[in-house]
């Protein structure tokens, strides 16, 4: 199963992404994640959500191979809508969402963590938005919630990544620990929040979203429009084909 959801006795719901080999979610996977998160927030028994992943890394974004193996724009439109739904579900979840990140967090992964309320990471974690390499745009909205504006632009234009330890300095990642301590850290923070009156915490989440200076949903949707333009121009297909060919060659080595 790509997305698992488990409610603990203390009211902490653990949502796990598990899509081998790199947690690059298919169109259906993004919609499944959105559905699970929406259901978590709607369940009065859920007090906090911990969003984590199994496997090599947290999330590698959309499944490029699925997109390239689908004729027309159905996969592109599906990925756009699925990512929008998943990012929105994180942001609008009625309870706090703690992202526990290990390994790589790329593209759509940054969309998820950028909309989370708390981020913790393992010492091997790194973040980046390589969309320009694949002829797409998106998640700058969420990257801008992790680093200052000019650093965001540098990372975005170059498709470089940034280690989790650097994000601690910017205040966006709460703490970095060895990978085998990551789940314990996330669950400990979640339990601390879950011990509060859930009526107050749910009100606090809504209040904090209400005073947010950026409308993340509108901002991200604006970015997606440029991705569609690049696809209509044929630029995105060329770059995705190059990417898919490079990945295939790596697999044969």
SSE diagram, text form:
Layout: E1 3-7, E2 12-17, H1 27-42, E3 48-53, H2 64-68, H3 74-92, E4 97-101, E5 104-106, H4 108-114, E6 118-122, E7 126-128, H5 140-143, H6 149-158, E8 161-163, H7 164-170, E9 175-177, H8 182-194, H9 198-210, H10 216-232, H11 235-252
What does this entry look like structurally?
With 253 residues, the chain is of the alpha/beta class. It has a single domain, classed as Alpha-Beta Complex (2-enoyl-CoA Hydratase, Chain A, domain 1). The chain is 51% helix and 15% strand. The protein contains 11 helices and 9 strands. It has helices spanning 27-42, 64-68, 74-92, 108-114, 140-143, 149-158, 164-170, 182-194, 198-210, 216-232, 235-252, and strands at 3-7, 12-17, 48-53, 97-101, 104-106, 118-122, 126-128, 161-163, 175-177. The strands form 2 sheets. A 6-stranded mixed sheet has the order 1-2-3-4-6-9, with helices on both faces. It has a 3-stranded mixed sheet with strand order 5-7-8. The longest helix is centred in the N-terminal third of the chain and has 19 residues, at 74-92. The protein starts with a strand and ends with a helix. This is Enoyl-CoA hydratase family protein. Keywords: Lipid metabolism, Lyase. One of its GO terms (molecular function) is lyase activity. Belongs to the enoyl-CoA hydratase/isomerase family. InterPro entries: ClpP/crotonase-like_dom_sf, Enoyl-CoA_hydra/iso.
